[in-house]
Amino acid sequence: MTVPVSFEFFPPRNAEQKLVLESTWQKLAPLKPHYLSVTFGAGGSTLSATRETVNDLLHSAGVPVAPHISCMVQSRSVLREILQAYQVLGVDRLVVLRGDRPEGMSGPGPFQFASELVAFIRAEFGTAFRIEVACYPECHPESASAQADLEFFRRKVEAGADAAITQYFYNADGYFRFVDDCRAMGMDIPITPGIMPITNFHQLARFSKMCGAEIPRWICRRLEGFGDDAAAVRAFGLDVLTDLCQRLIDGGAPGLHVYTLNRANASLLLWQRLALAH
Question: Does domain 5-274 have CATH number 3.20.20.220?
Answer without folding.
Answer: yes
